Amino acid sequence: MESEGNQRTPNRPYNENRFTVRRISSVAVMQNVPENTELQVDSCPNAYVNQGYLSEIPYNADRKKSFQHNTLEALPRLDNYRNDFIGLKRPSLGELHGEEKDLKDKNENVAPPKNEPTGHGVKLGWIQGVLIPCLLNIWGVMLFLRLSWVVAQSGISGSLIIIVLSAIVCVLTTTSMSAISTNGEVQGGGIYYIISRSLGPEFGASVGIVFAFANAVAASMNTIGFCSSLNDLLRENDLKILDGGVNDIRIVGTIALLIMVIICAVGMEWESKAQNFLVVIIIAAMLDFVVGAIIGPVTDEEKAKGFEGISSKLLAENWGSDYRYSEMKQQNFFSVFAIFFPSVTGIQAGANISGDLKNPAFSIPNGTMLAVVISMISYAIFVFVAGASTSRDASGIVSELATGQFTNCFNRTCEFGLHNSYTVMQMVSSWGPLIFAGCFAATLSTALTNLLSVPRLIQAIGNDRIYPRIIYFSKGYGKNNEAYRGYVLTFIVSLAFLLIAELNAIAPLISNFYLASYAMINFCTFHAALIKPLGWRPTYKYYNMWLSLVGFILCVGIMFLIDWVTSLITMIITFALYLIVVYRKPDVNWGSSTQAQTYKTALSSALRLVNVSEHVKNYKPQILVLSGKPCARPSLLDLAYLITKNNALFMCADILQKKLSYKARQNRIRESYAWLGHRKIKGFYALIDDVNFEDGVKSLLQAVGVGKLRPNVLMMGFKDDWITCSYENLLSYFNGLHEAFYHRVAVTIVRVPGGLDYSWVTDEEISKIPANGNLTVTSNGTSDRSAALECLPVESPHLPRKFIINEKITKSPRLMLKKKEPTSQTKEEFQLNQTGKRLSQNIMQAMSLFNSKQDKGTIDVWWLYDDGGLTILLPYIISTRHDWSSCKLRVFALANRKQELELETRNMASLLAKFRIDYASLTMVEDITEKPKEETQQLFNKILRDYAGKTEEESEESVKNTVLLDLELEALREKTNRHLRLREFLIQHSSEAKLIVMSLPMPRKSMVSAPLYMAWLEIISRDMPPMMLVRGNQTSSLITLSK
């Protein structure tokens, strides 16, 4: 029997042999969903609505409804895997699990997509978008004006070697670029996007800026080439504008550059149409040159100028090199290579406009590789044709043809031939004007491509907010989101180099910039392939990481062989740009291979550390701080980090009794790490919820850490409210100490005047309090910096002193900081108007007690019992820190026998000397067993009375558990008196100390109750300077011998 959900609709024929699949787009699926994301019952009769979400019910075969409307699950689709913020996303695990919090958040947070331009409107295929731009960029000024000169200097064989070497660099770089570009979607930004998403923003931004600069300069170089060719054309017709030289180049070049920038700014449609026309002219010009060489010279004048037609004699004469003094220097292989290499630097043209491609992953590899093959073959043909048809030197004198002396320029200066004339291609061609047209087309098309790519790079870098100064130039306008300001900047940079008007002065600089970019592309691929993160799955399979490494080494090597000074400058500029990004630490997460490398290195190191045997010489205090939310106890974290800074593991733990939702946990973790980062504390944060303090400590000690990277010291604050809190609360704190000792972990308890807990200061509306007093605050709390500044103490050491924080009631609440006029008050105060609480300067100083510079003073170490040396090691570490370097150690120890006081002093001094610990004084304390003073005893009795008085308000069971029995006091009378005597010694010797470090009394299980133990700690630390009570785990943390 068919189930109800599978019944056929009445009055509808059923064909068992027909099966139809209708394609449904993700947008079409959601068209029936109201804008407020709540599904109405009448719009989907087969489901019911639960808190705005469609719940799963038995399926009713209404064939007009898609399956999407009958389940909360999301079907696999591309939009779910895009790394952006769009309205339609797969449901979270909490939503599928039915957690009310996640369902509510989903309803509140889903917003329709913004109608903002996200890219350029016209999308191009691989021929129009990659092949043609690459060919136009490769067939540039050097093809028509310098390739014949390259043949003259290096010969046919040397020129072919130069072409092959350039081809190797291009092929290797193209292979690497293809691998990266097919490893996911490539968006706007080209080379910058590829490198930044592969190696990280530091490499991508630095190389992107250099590459954008190189493209801008290359545009000026090609414009200069166009103007030089135009000057040659005018000179042939006895025309000129001013001087027929550099001034004409500057005038015409400025006009041409402005027109090209306007063409690019108009949009991709105009630029594409112009490129199609230009590429036809270039191909026609190249064919014109080959046909002319085959036909040979048609006049004696052409013969006299060195064009003799293709012959084996010229092929043999021009096969070898003939390096001469030219272009103000003695030429060699690599100097000629530097002049030629800009003619092959167009392989990135397609990647530069990757945001305008329909399918970048397919277009970039295929279009670029085909462009490299075509261009290199055309260059090789040109070399053979030019070398086999034209002499190196020619006088141009027709009368010397009969004697054959027209090629003899030994004692005279010749103006024609491969060495001396840049217009050989026009002379050899069958129709000269077409060569000029081809030269104009090649130079202008390459300049167009360069000018088009620079604003794209600037816009991509600006949108990522890597360099703040570039953001202004990245703003997009119009439906195609064109960066008009970027075009203005590109025009200014290109114009600056255009005014130099010297082609050969610019070419080596461009070569170095391009080689640096290509080197980084190869290194990106090598690094990603070496690390092999799970996300490295390029669809382009014809790459090899070792070939990428060879490409990287080859590019760097050629850079320095061309000109080590220029290469060094290029490296310095790139490194400076890299350091700027490292210093700024942009808030980006692109899944780069450097992130994968960091993980892999950390994992390998942690695994290796597991097999490293522990030795006391390598002991490090790895501290777990029970801080709660980090911003609540800044001074406790500062003290712990003072010990572990740059040397040992630091972890802060947050134990919560209430259960947090997943989103609340993630927000708390994010805010805590942001606060630690802003405080410049390098460490880890652990959050455990739905547990009491005792169980939380136990869980942390058992589970926190990895391998040998586990805490061996537990630091916690003194429980100031132990007298007034409930017995269960007190017992949980006390048992937490026992858990630490059970797990053989050292314990430190910290107490400072005024307490450690400043959570009452926290104001979640505060997002920025700058030192200059001008407050700009938002209440959305979306950024990590806002989270880091959630607590007022973040900037407390640097805050101006007299301020009032007022609340401004608006639709979007903001806090405004206004400077308070000077008053007659002796104490400067801070006021939170919304809470009415005031923060005195003393409180602000207390919150930054351990991370501020200390005046001259002492750190008093009361090393009462041998716990392995931790009690003396921790204060020694503190004394070595910069802020505490003015504080000297004073050591106090208990004397065993009064009559042997001098001997015990010498023994202790000898021990400290062997530990190599510097100290200012050593005092052996005697008479510790004497009876304490009456006022000390009275204070202790008052502490006990205060605690006992509190129990009267509690239940009978609680009173039974908390009242201190006379039997316990009598049994521990001697030990109690020792603690009372210690207080008297502390008052006598250490009341003015900057910090007191003392051995922590050991709470023996089943021997001392929680109230009595806390009374001991209270009598020792009450009204004292900042105090740290330390108990090591009874294993050595110091060593006297080097073995």
From TrEMBL:
<feature type="transmembrane region" description="Helical">
    <location>
        <begin position="513"/>
        <end position="531"/>
    </location>
</feature>
<dbReference type="InterPro" id="IPR002443">
    <property type="entry name" value="SLC12A1/SLC12A2"/>
</dbReference>
<dbReference type="InterPro" id="IPR018491">
    <property type="entry name" value="SLC12_C"/>
</dbReference>
<feature type="domain" description="SLC12A transporter C-terminal">
    <location>
        <begin position="633"/>
        <end position="1040"/>
    </location>
</feature>
<keyword id="KW-0633">Potassium transport</keyword>
<keyword id="KW-0812">Transmembrane</keyword>
<keyword id="KW-1133">Transmembrane helix</keyword>
<keyword id="KW-0630">Potassium</keyword>
<dbReference type="GO" id="GO:0055075">
    <property type="term" value="P:potassium ion homeostasis"/>
</dbReference>
<keyword id="KW-0739">Sodium transport</keyword>
<dbReference type="Pfam" id="PF03522">
    <property type="entry name" value="SLC12"/>
</dbReference>
<dbReference type="GO" id="GO:0008511">
    <property type="term" value="F:sodium:potassium:chloride symporter activity"/>
</dbReference>
<dbReference type="InterPro" id="IPR004842">
    <property type="entry name" value="SLC12A_fam"/>
</dbReference>
<dbReference type="GO" id="GO:1990573">
    <property type="term" value="P:potassium ion import across plasma membrane"/>
</dbReference>
<keyword id="KW-0472">Membrane</keyword>
<keyword id="KW-0406">Ion transport</keyword>
<comment type="similarity">
    <text>Belongs to the SLC12A transporter family.</text>
</comment>
<feature type="transmembrane region" description="Helical">
    <location>
        <begin position="543"/>
        <end position="562"/>
    </location>
</feature>
<feature type="transmembrane region" description="Helical">
    <location>
        <begin position="251"/>
        <end position="270"/>
    </location>
</feature>
<feature type="transmembrane region" description="Helical">
    <location>
        <begin position="151"/>
        <end position="172"/>
    </location>
</feature>
<dbReference type="GO" id="GO:0055064">
    <property type="term" value="P:chloride ion homeostasis"/>
</dbReference>
<keyword id="KW-0813">Transport</keyword>
<feature type="transmembrane region" description="Helical">
    <location>
        <begin position="487"/>
        <end position="507"/>
    </location>
</feature>
<keyword id="KW-0915">Sodium</keyword>
<feature type="domain" description="Amino acid permease/ SLC12A">
    <location>
        <begin position="129"/>
        <end position="624"/>
    </location>
</feature>
<dbReference type="GO" id="GO:0055078">
    <property type="term" value="P:sodium ion homeostasis"/>
</dbReference>
<feature type="transmembrane region" description="Helical">
    <location>
        <begin position="277"/>
        <end position="298"/>
    </location>
</feature>
<keyword id="KW-0868">Chloride</keyword>
<dbReference type="GO" id="GO:0006884">
    <property type="term" value="P:cell volume homeostasis"/>
</dbReference>
<keyword id="KW-0325">Glycoprotein</keyword>
<feature type="transmembrane region" description="Helical">
    <location>
        <begin position="203"/>
        <end position="231"/>
    </location>
</feature>
<dbReference type="Pfam" id="PF00324">
    <property type="entry name" value="AA_permease"/>
</dbReference>
<dbReference type="GO" id="GO:0016020">
    <property type="term" value="C:membrane"/>
</dbReference>
<feature type="transmembrane region" description="Helical">
    <location>
        <begin position="367"/>
        <end position="388"/>
    </location>
</feature>
<protein>
    <submittedName>
        <fullName>Sodium-potassium-chloride cotransporter, putative</fullName>
    </submittedName>
</protein>
<feature type="transmembrane region" description="Helical">
    <location>
        <begin position="333"/>
        <end position="355"/>
    </location>
</feature>
<keyword id="KW-0769">Symport</keyword>
<feature type="transmembrane region" description="Helical">
    <location>
        <begin position="124"/>
        <end position="145"/>
    </location>
</feature>
<dbReference type="InterPro" id="IPR004841">
    <property type="entry name" value="AA-permease/SLC12A_dom"/>
</dbReference>
<feature type="transmembrane region" description="Helical">
    <location>
        <begin position="431"/>
        <end position="452"/>
    </location>
</feature>
